[in-house]
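Q: What would this complex look like in 3D?
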Amino acid sequence: MALLSMKNINKSFFGKMANNQVCFDLEPGEIHALLGENGAGKTTLMNILYGIYSRDSGDILWKGKEAAFSSPRDAIAFHIGMVHQHFMLVPTLTVSQNITLGLREKGYPFPNRKTLNATITEVSKKYGLQIDVDAYISSLSVGEQQRVEIIKLLYRDAELLILDEPTAMLTPQETEYFFEVLRKLRADGHSVIIITHRIPEVMSITDRVTVLRDGYNVLTAKTSEITEQELSQYMIGRQLHSIHREPILPDVDSEGLVLEEVSLKENGRERLDLPSLRIAPGEIVGIAGVDGNGQKDLVEVILGIRKQSSGKIRMDNVDMSSMSVLKRKKLGIGYISDDRQRDGLVMDMNLTDNILLKTHTDDRFIKHGLIDDRLVWEDTQKAVEEYAIKTPGLNTPLRYLSGGNQQKLILARELAGDPKAIVAHQPTRGLDIGATEFVQQQLLQRRSKGCCILLISADLEEILLLSDRIAVIYKGRIMGIFPNTEDLNLSNIGLMMAGRTPDVREGSL
Amino acid sequence: MKQYGNFLSFLGIAVLTLAISILLILMVGSNVNQAFFSFLSGIFGSFYSVSEVLVKATPLILTGLGVAVGARSGFINIGAEGQLYMGAIAVTCLAFWLHDLPAIVMIPMVILGGFVFGGVWSVIPGFLKARFGISEVITTLMFNYIAIGIVGILVRTMLKDPSSSLPMSAFLPDSATLPVLMSTTRLHAGLLIALISVVLVWILVWKTPIGYEMRAVGLNPRACKCSGISVYKNILRSSMISGGLAGIAGVCEVSGLHHKLLEGISPGYGYIAIIIALLGKNHPVGVVIAALGIAALQLGSLGMQRMAGVPTSISSIIMGVVVLLILARKSIFRRLLTDE
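A: Here is my prediction, written as structure tokens for the whole assembly.
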């Protein structure tokens, strides 16, 4: 008998079906992947199970009994636990306090921390989830925080663990270690659902896989009976465009974007310490690394949002080390931030106003000291057509556009006026496959026009797909730079992402 | 459903407000019909009563506009009251100091002076916020007490009228008084100054690059920083303009209405201004409508007190109720406003 079965689940948001007659079932003691593109409805389905959303129709059976949880608290009471993509931990509390948070342990409100710690340590040892119970969450790495989340669920006797994109922030080595933990959990009779869009992971760890596409359940199969190619076709519904990179342009006269031994120190902490790096015109340099290793510092120093402690930054022989952000942008630097809603857009302003964020001081839009609304409107209209931005109108606040269309607006703004260099930080984060391809094509087009491009991404596949050279960043330092060739040693890159220097160095600066 | 929902929810607020007013009137033992009649006649009863609404609305428009400009760029100005008093000090000092100037020079001079005094009174908290992250809510509020205190000292010492025993200044020279717009009323040119300010602020905030920056900073300072718009500069700018407008309100009250400086020239205009900015959705036109509405409410309730014996305190209660209802509108009328 299935442990869990969800039958004909329907859920719509604002008239759009996020789940359409989705069926899903889970055997006891299996690792089951829920595979699909962004927006395919995976997380929605699991949020319905977990009691965060209510379903429009359909049945949920848990251990053969009708079950519909109205809140995560209900779900946990029935031994179902979920780890969200963004962890729900209190950074100022210790591991042990986070794990017991909200529970009324014996002796509440003054529980005996020592006995609690002993229980937690027992759980963590059993599954190889090593953790220091007295450490503060703020001092832990992402991988360690994930362990805390899992221990938290196990401590609450979860039989089913739902993990939303659990490997998104992990290095290849951490991922391997994490899989080891999952196998132990399975051996112990736990069931696991992994929400993911990474096919290789599905192949290496899961027993069965369910593929969702556009809210429909398109396949449920045993992982051993299906190939990667088949899975990707089910997931995407068509063949992926393979991206073809033209050979790099012959060196032109211009110097390109040059970082000269840039470093950044803040509050006594060294955040960046980089060797000299030159991005030639028509070259894409990819920065690989686990999120939070100085990538944000790097882009903000290049843009002038933060001031480097030492070193120089030049663009085509112009020293812009002490220029303001606006001057650098006018010099021809386009910036695609990793957090478009916070850094790149004013969500409550409309399309024209968001285009103005960069151009409001441009002479061509100003007549007698006033902004000429008609010219701005025409400019925005052109951008909307050129980049195929789907919007009800130019007056729509950005808040009501989809992530992909928001990102297209940023591209339209930042790529306008043929920038000499583009700093693209996670430019495809959270986008669906179509928008991702669009962004990547745009970057390649700019490359062939002789733009210097710095691409920073936590997604190694994206780096491999687009970059001419790959640099690995760890704790604000560059661990190595390689030309992106066929015989690139991926495991070395993985090791460097985790901060270790491989014995054999390959490539050269 | 949604379009109607918005309309219905406001209708609901009106009905609720009306019901509460009737309840209050009944509670104090007055006749509801008579109370409403006297309320309306307090506003529209005569040419004079209408002009009084406009007199009352003048400082409310200016201070409300000031608070709204600040709010647009994220500067929560609770200090319009103090800034108004600083403007009043400015006009009094300038008028006595430059008493020989003709009106054509004097009037622009005192308006500018009031703008600068009020602006400085607000730009200090603005600087503290932009530079050190100190909450302007606290500092602007504290600055009110200081400004009112300074007025109290001045009207008893340096600016005191020697020929009077009361704590107030002498009458301003004629060149520093604003002309009355219509004889037999108290309606003065301050109303024109207020309306011109409304137009200027609208152009500044919605049509110029500077105004664009101020609005953008108010909505997402982080994105502005990433685009090279200085958050610091814009907070200083908007706090200066915000306080300056409240300062002009002080100028208008002194040179248009009282013609001298005295304590209590503002019965809390600077605080009502916060409500006006809120009701007017921080838009210049909305501010004018809200200011007229509140001025009418206050004068109407005066009429009610005179003719029907209903205490004027009722107008403050109603103002409080309306603000609460509007703030809670989306939760109270959730059914009407969502799709379901």
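A: To summarize the key features: The first helix of chain A runs from residue 42 to 49. Residues 505-509 of chain A have pLDDT under 50 and may be disordered.
Q: Very helpful, thank you.
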